[in-house]
User: Fold this.
Amino acid sequence: MCGIAGLLELRGARVDPQPMALMNALQAHRGPDGEGVWSSGPVAFGHRRLAIFDLSEAGAQPMRIQHEGRELVVTYNGEIYNHPELRTELEGLGDVFRSRSDTEVLLRAYARWGTDAFRRFNGMFACAIWDAGQDQLVLVRDRLGIKPLYLYEGPTRLLFASEPKAILAVAPEARAIDEAVLFRYLAAGQQDEGQRTFFRDLRQLEPGTWRSYRLGASGLERSAGRYWSPPTPGSLRPDDVAGALRERLERAVQLRLRSEVPVGSCLSGGIDSSAIVGLAARHSGTPIRTFTAVHDDPGYDERRFARAVVARHGCQAHEIQPRIGGDLASLLDTIGWYHDEPCARPGILSQWFVMSLAAGQVTVLLDGQGGDELLLGYVAHVVPYLRSLGRDVVGGRASLGGLLRDSAHLLRQPTTTPRGPGLLAEHLGWAVWARGRDLLARSAGPWLPRGPGPDLRPAVLAAALQPATALESGRLVDRASWQDVFHRTIPALLHHEDRTSMAFSLEARVPFLDHEFVELCLGLDYREKLRGGRLKGLLRDAVADVLPPMVRNRRDKLGYPTPIGRWLVEGGDDVRELLFAGFEDRGYLRSGALSTAWSDLVAGRGSPWALYRYLSAELWLQRFIDAPLSPPAPAPRIPAPVAT
Assistant:
């Protein structure tokens, strides 16, 4: 895991490598183990290294090799988990390696197979390769977009980096706001949906694609390609579905235990993280180190579930209790600096504390992102599931008895809403309200300003809010899962996972998003996933032997629970000043809307999530737009871990 940066002069002029030093400095947290800069002709690469494989200087970057008379150079962020197998294959073809790093495997694989090499990689990666013989730059990103890659193309140069701030520091003209993206965030909390960013002229490279820039005799030649596409829902029918799921998940965990530095795991006590810890414990030679956030409020506390997993597998457990008090604004400012954008989900605060606890104890962390989206683990999946099942009953493809049984089980599902823990009925009421709010927002609803101030309505109407790669056909539940994986949920969660872990120089690995596991899950019949009318029923069956019964049978779901409403109120004058003397004056809300939302919060009504978004947006605007780019003061002191 690392930080990468680069610059290409699009007209072939000789590059000035000086910007690489600044770009590297702003991404130093991503790689404390080394720094490198390389330049030649029109191209310059920068790199910050977090050493995982081959800790010697032989694995340093940018890395250069010679292959059949061609010089190739790479700056790379990520891990290729199957690099030992690929190395063996390449050595059989005559390649000679000078390091044990996966970086060299990636570069030699590209030298031999070109862009077809990307299909062979099992891992997470974003990299830039310079082929000196072809005067060609190739950029690539992994299939699910686990690793970030941002681009800014000006009239004469292309800049790229792992984080926007590295680009903005050397191209301040790129700091203009994309108002449609900001509006979508304020209205509905959507982030990282598509290639657009909060900065109008910065784009993300689309996951599962590569892009090249060749400085040819007749000028700049651009090309692009997609090397991965997910399967059609319902196209896979293994004889033993639970067995196939278990085999691929266990293989994904095994691969992600490969490391030359200490490995641990986040553990919430939910089914996903508990399954990962249980499977990792079967294949680790030492006790798994686990890291858990706990809370005094029983509605947000999952320690009894996490401790059951720890006891079952003999883990070395660590717990931390997030306490914020009056530091909420300064903590969010710090988090926003590392994220380069406002934060939509309050769970990022609990995640921050967990990562701070792991820092210094391990370098690699496993985490459970992806299980809910792939295997129907959210209560929001219940309605599209039952509607799809109902249509299949009418069409003669499912039984009425199954529909009645699943309805009875699922509609009694406990859950949590932005207002706190509750039942599915409460969640559905919240979802209906949120859906209506979103529809109003998309049609320039009444909460928008109608007087002086920024008018976002034209930007919203001009924005392509519906993802271009949405699943156009199939059952409602398949479309819902597809949207979660590729647009609504996973991209934002991966953004959070990458930035929060990298803030503490940690490499986060997500076994559920192993591409082979993803392909299996997306290709399964939706009815397999909710076996017996249980959310993630298939996963529960597949990993039943590694889960304590109280975890395997739990029906509630929290997921980095965070008492954000209480923390906002406890935030004191700093929070109120940022909202009422800062954000309200920007004109993004109608007069009185903020006061009403705050009064509802203090009275225990309504959702605190919108206020949390407004606070995050105000801090982001102050840090990235209003003033010259600069990091915040040191983060607030992290509380001591709770004794286990």
Remarks:
- Residues 438-448, 461-465 have pLDDT under 50 and may be disordered.
- The two ends are 30 Å apart (CA to CA).
- Residues 2-226 form a domain with the Glutamine Phosphoribosylpyrophosphate, subunit 1, domain 1 fold (CATH 3.60.20.10).
- The CA atoms of residues 38 and 244 lie 45 Å apart.
